[in-house]
Automatic annotation (TrEMBL):
The keyword Repeat applies. This is TILB protein. The lineage of its organism: Eukaryota, Metazoa, Chordata, Craniata, Vertebrata. The keyword Acetylation does not apply. Coiled coil: none annotated. Keywords: Leucine-rich repeat, Repeat. SUPFAM superfamilies: L domain-like. InterPro entries: Leu-rich_rpt, LRR_dom_sf. PANTHER family: GENE 29133-RELATED, LEUCINE RICH REPEAT PROTEIN. Gene3D superfamilies: Ribonuclease Inhibitor. It comes from Certhia brachydactyla.
Length: 223
């Protein structure tokens, strides 16, 4: 049975009438777009179309003003369930407008490449549980201080030196393949001289050893 709210389930918050909520007032908005008309017809949900109407240029401009992402300083866009390409493109459109954001969470969005995105004021970025395979796929974040990349698929430390001239102090790479690289901590700290904390552990004296110096490790064999 259809619920009374069924015809509204694909509407964005900007499409709801008689409210003045702006984007910078929402800390955890859902920004993914609903299915296309063709997809709704395929799903036999065309009854939801009756709430849609032809959008005028004036209404588009009003929506853009309401989506004032440029004014956001702190935003959580995690768990967006970006299942279609057009949703990913709309998501990136919003990211490109975040010119003042300082804290941004993009957890578990199946993201693979944000290299075309620039976040000029971002100091804290959390992109845990995505599909990044390289540091080169991250957005441009010249002011970054705290970066969390846990549970991605970054296999090597290639490209990490791009953050050498940033004020990066804390980096989390837990549960990435690169974590198992020999002399992993030494390599990271030698590439990032400003780094103070790696994977939640402060910089230790042994982390300061040159990466080409062999350090003896006590090992055990599990049979």
């Amino acid at each position: 049975f259809k619920l009374p709210s069924d015809s509204f389930k694909y509407l964005g918050w900007c499409d709801i009438e008689e409210h003045g909520v702006r984007g910078n007032q929402l800390h955890c908005p859902r920004v993914r777009e609903g299915p296309s008309e063709e997809e709704l017809f395929f799903r036999k949900e065309e009854h939801t179309l009756k709430k849609r109407k032809q959008v005028t240029d004036t209404e588009k401009w009003e929506k853009r003003l309401q989506e004032n992402w440029e004014n956001c300083a702190e935003l959580n866009l995690s768990f967006q369930d970006l299942g279609d390409l057009y949703q990913v493109e709309n998501f990136k459109r919003i990211l490109r407008r975040l010119i003042r954001v300082e804290k941004l969470w993009l957890v578990d969005n199946s993201l693979t490449d944000l290299s075309a995105i620039r976040l000029p004021r971002c100091r804290e970025l959390n992109v845990n549980k995505n599909h990044f395979t390289s540091f080169k796929q991250l957005p441009k974040i010249p002011q970054i201080q705290h970066l969390s990349l846990a549970e991605n698929n970054i296999t090597t430390l290639s490209g990490i030196s791009d953050f050498r001239h940033t004020p990066l102090e804390s980096l989390i790479l837990k549960r990435n393949p690169c974590e198992f690289q020999e002399r992993y901590r030494q390599l990271v700290f030698s590439s990032l001289p400003n780094l103070k904390i790696l994977d939640g552990i402060p910089k230790l004296p042994e982390d300061c050893s040159p990466p080409d110096v062999r350090v003896f490790y006590r090992m055990c064999t599990i049979l």
